[in-house]
Amino acid sequence: PAVLFEARDLVKRFRTRRHTVHAVNGVSLSIPRGRTVGLVGESGSGKSTVARLALRLLDPTSGELRFDGIDLLRVSRREMRALRRRMQIVFQNPLGSLNPRMRVLNVVGEPLTVHRIAKGRQQVDRVVELLEKVGLGAADLYKFSHQFSGGQAQRIGIARALATDPDLIVCDEAVSALDVSVQAQVLNLLKRLQAELGLSYLFIAHDLNVVRYMADEVCVMYLGRIVERGDGDTLFTDPRHPYTQMLVSAVPEFAPEREGERRHRVAPRGEPASPSNPPSGCHFHPRCPKAMARCRTEAPKVHRIEDGRTVACHLYDPAGEASGK
Ligand code: SF4
Ligand code: MG
Questions:
Q1: Ligand 2 mean position, distance from CA 176 (Å)
Q2: How many domains is the chain built from?
């Protein structure tokens, strides 16, 4: 199928002693083959939980997950293990959970061992090939992972993710810890690898410019829900949801063609609310400059507007405010 990955109405609730936390509350998204879907939002919006659910590192409370037409919630443990080869993740600090005394050969070779893809001399050859794909090489094989800079460590993390020859890579804040110039290099590497290998990405970041650069389609998350979804460029040049508008106006735009124009930077209003105690109605209403009476009591439906965009906001309800009463 043209769609590689699909999530329908994903819900993830965590129970703590005092609260039920709706970390993810009805998220749907689909990633076409060879394309990138971006997920953007502040911390606490549920982005990383979506990442973990997508790869079944966490089980959803309800919803559907499909990968290459396969129902991920019905496969056996064994089938899931085989599927895991085809879905990888790159974290913000991909080597952070590994022993710093591990050599690059073992960092990148480990998935080859775990999935019994290659060992011995064959594994060394494959690791060299993977390192070359990410701009490193045989000279790096026996270095320790802690000897590398942030950007190089990220390249090693990407090589490790590529080891099993995946179709989907989830990038969870993969460049967030890097300097802007190094970020650009890693993003361009990811784009080149996508073109070369036909990879699909779920690209998660809090940085709008980074998501805009990478994603064909962007989903904006707020407290466990997708509030706006649309084509990467139009979503940012013409944001419709008040939260997307706030995010866009808070970020200096990267637009060389409009260099002369004066841009206002507006700090986001208010603190993001907590997922353990979300506001009633539209979760965004305490921070929304356009909130109406119904916003406090009634969760907005998802409205489809022009150019395929969807917006979860009462402002786009064709029936208007009165319909909510
Ligand atoms: Fe603002 Fe109401 Fe729209 Fe929520 S539904 S974003 S509070 S206008
Ligand atoms: Mg996160």
A1: 10
A2: 2
ipTM of predicted complex: 0.95
Kindly report the protein residue whose alpha carbon is nearest to atom 5 of ligand 1: 313
Count helices and strands (H / E) in the chain: 9, 12
Ligand at minimal distance from the CA of 44 is: 2
Q: 182: which 2 tokens?
A: 């190094």
Residue 288 belongs to what domain range? 3-86+166-253+264-324
CA of 48 to the centre of ligand 2 (A): 4
Candidates 298, 295, 277; CA nearest to 287 is 295
CATH number for the domain including 302?
A: 3.40.50.300
| Ligand 1 and 269: CB distance under 6 A | no
CA of 45 to the centre of ligand 2 (A): 8
Q: Considering 165, 199, 219, which residue would you say is the last residue of a domain?
A: 165
Write out the H or E segment, with its range, that includes residue 64: strand 62-67
Summarised one tens digit per residue, pLDDT across range 262-314 is 444 445 667 767 788 889 999 999 999 999 999 999 999 999 998 889 999 99
Over residues 139-196, the pLDDT tens digits come to: 999 999 888 999 999 999 999 999 999 999 999 999 998 999 999 999 999 999 999 9
